[in-house]
């Protein structure tokens, strides 16, 4: 393990704290009675408080110091006075523990009384403090100059996503994204629960990956000696519950799709699906409008949200347009009554990449995705999808070529999908078989399995049902003005970190280490410097490089500085 100079120093401080009889990782609880927010909201002069947080700044003024700690809700200023903290002759707690052995990033517990500084800042006069957790790595804290310019901010996206824990510390405004995410879930649950719908859990490991057209992740169950699949959707299990007699069920489902990654797709994502008996897709459009208006207000205090250059309004009602009409509007091509070959040829003429494995539904989907989808900025329902695109959807009551389905588009992206659910078991079997033929033809996103148990469930009878699925990650992107899905996931999927390459010594560093080896890896600093015969600049650079990679350290013995080799 190669440690930086700062990491070495912090470990040395850790040892010194323990030598003083201080446990830098105490087990006992710390009796916090106020958060930083509560202190500010209920501020009273001379009020006693107990709080805790991470030390984020220190301004040393000799016998006194100002500092700031940060907790989940914000920051509060602290005032350390040596003679207040150390009332007797022993000033170790202030002079040594606080000033020399405490670092930015350490968690500390504070007991003290409130007062207002001369410049009007709310502050805690510290009477007692405790180290609750010693940090061994320095925080990448941004620096601000006298003109307010910020330097060394922790903004690199890959580092922020990989070390989200650091991102949340040094960029506290990013916490608001995830607070709003929780508000969204709570608002949606409240909306459903108030209407009497039941939240349920369904299997993540499934023998048959159904409910969507997507490539699954595959695993193996050792005890049963069978392959299992991470769920791509929970639809078929929720419908089984409607068969079983529940009339309204929903689930926030972690789904897994072994497909591409980009700014709007993560292989692990969260979807909400709800199924309500005796409803259809027309009722579900009204329901979806009311739901999203309610959620937008709960998250942002308004039905309006800013996303990039657009202001989106989730206030009901939303525009409704058929898929056929959308394609006519933006391409001039009418898909009605056209054969698969005619649609494929039209797609080619539009400059859309298609191939022979694509069936009629996939071709229509490609045309809509390439030519139409991106034009819908305000919430818009696209309705009445061709039957080939919707194997789990009830045939349209007025046109047997279509299904009773809608997708909700916002800023050119789908955030919701809904059906009048197919409950005819014979029709459902035929749809599954058609999907299986497409899979055999080469469409790896078509259904590759027929779920016999689900068909058996339908044969016991499922009432007319309306279903709705919402991509929660994408929805919170729109509500928090984040164009990248990675920004709204606490821990997005990342490539493994590259191994740190072995440190390659410079010629000057090799000279120093070779001399140390001849003297049993330990010798006076002045003697080593003399024998190395390096210029001052080269000496300083070589010694700094060796120390930063934990290859040497300088210690004091009998008031003389000695260099030790650690190799």
From TrEMBL:
Residues 181-496 form the Aminoacyl-transfer RNA synthetases class-II family profile domain. Mg(2+) 1 binds at residues 407, 414. Its EC number is 6.1.1.6. It is an enzyme of class 6 (ligase). Binds 3 Mg(2+) ions per subunit. Its cofactor is Mg(2+). Gene3D superfamilies: Bira Bifunctional Protein, Domain 2, Nucleic acid-binding proteins. Its main location: cytoplasm. It catalyses: tRNA(Lys) + L-lysine + ATP = L-lysyl-tRNA(Lys) + AMP + diphosphate. One of its GO terms (biological process) is lysyl-tRNA aminoacylation. One of its GO terms (cellular component) is cytosol. Homodimer. Belongs to the class-II aminoacyl-tRNA synthetase family. This is Lysine--tRNA ligase. It comes from Paenimyroides marinum. The gene is lysS.
């Amino acid at each position: 393990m190669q440690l930086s100079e700062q990491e070495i120093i912090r470990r040395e401080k850790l040892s010194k704290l323990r030598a003083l009889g201080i446990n830098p990782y105490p087990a006992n609880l710390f009796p916090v009675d106020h958060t930083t927010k509560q202190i500010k909201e209920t501020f009273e002069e001379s009020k006693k408080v107990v709080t805790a947080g991470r030390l984020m700044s220190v301004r040393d003024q000799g016998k006194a110091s100002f500092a700031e700690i940060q907790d989940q809700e914000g920051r509060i200023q602290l005032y350390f006075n040596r003679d207040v903290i150390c009332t007797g002759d022993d000033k170790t707690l202030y002079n040594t523990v606080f000033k020399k052995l405490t670092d930015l990033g350490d968690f500390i517990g504070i007991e003290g009384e409130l007062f207002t500084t001369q410049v009007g800042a709310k502050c805690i006069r510290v009477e007692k403090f405790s180290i609750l957790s010693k940090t061994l790595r320095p925080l990448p804290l941004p620096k601000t100059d006298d003109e307010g310019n910020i330097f060394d901010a922790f903004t690199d996206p890959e580092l922020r996503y990989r070390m989200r824990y650091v991102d949340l510390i040094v960029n506290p405004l990013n916490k608001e994204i995830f607070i709003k995410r929780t508000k969204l879930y709570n608002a949606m649950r409240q909306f459903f629960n108030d209407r009497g719908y039941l939240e349920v859990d369904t299997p993540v490991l499934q023998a048959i990956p159904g409910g969507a057209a997507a490539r699954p992740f595959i695993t193996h169950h050792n005890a049963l000696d069978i392959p299992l699949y991470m769920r791509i959707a929970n639809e078929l299990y929720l419908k089984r519950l409607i068969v079983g007699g529940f009339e309204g069920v929903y689930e926030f489902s972690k789904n897994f799709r072994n497909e591409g990654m980009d700014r709007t797709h993560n292989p692990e994502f969260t979807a909400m699906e709800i199924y309500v008996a005796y409803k259809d897709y027309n009722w579900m459009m009204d329901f979806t409008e009311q739901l999203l208006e309610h959620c937008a207000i709960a998250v942002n205090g308004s039905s309006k949200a800013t996303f990039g250059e657009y202001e989106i309004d989730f206030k009901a009602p939303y525009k409704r347009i058929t898929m056929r009409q959308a394609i006519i509007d933006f391409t001039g091509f009418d898909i009605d009554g056209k054969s698969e070959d005619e649609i494929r040829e039209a797609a080619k003429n539009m400059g859309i990449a298609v191939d022979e494995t694509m069936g009629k539904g996939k071709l229509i989907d490609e045309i809509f995705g390439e030519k139409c989808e991106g034009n819908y900025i305000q919430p818009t329902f696209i309705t009445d999808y061709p039957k080939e695109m919707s194997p789990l959807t009830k045939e349209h009551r007025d046109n047997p070529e279509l299904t009773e389905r809608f997708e909700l588009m916002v800023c050119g992206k789908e955030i919701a999908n809904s059906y009048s659910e197919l409950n005819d078991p014979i029709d459902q079997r035929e749809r599954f078989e058609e999907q299986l033929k497409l899979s055999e033809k080469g469409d790896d996103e078509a259904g590759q399995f027929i779920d016999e148990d689900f068909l058996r469930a339908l044969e016991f009878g499922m009432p007319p049902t309306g279903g709705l699925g919402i991509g929660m990650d994408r929805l919170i992107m729109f509500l928090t003005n984040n164009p990248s899905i990675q920004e709204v996931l606490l821990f997005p999927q990342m490539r493994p970190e590259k191994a740190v390459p072995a440190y390659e010594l410079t010629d000057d560093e090799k000279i120093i280490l070779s001399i140390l080896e001849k003297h049993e890896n330990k010798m006076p600093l002045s003697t080593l410097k003399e024998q190395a015969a390096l210029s001052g600049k080269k000496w300083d650079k070589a010694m700094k490089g060796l120390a930063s990679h934990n290859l040497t350290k300088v210690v004091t013995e009998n008031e003389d500085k000695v260099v030790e080799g650690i190799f």
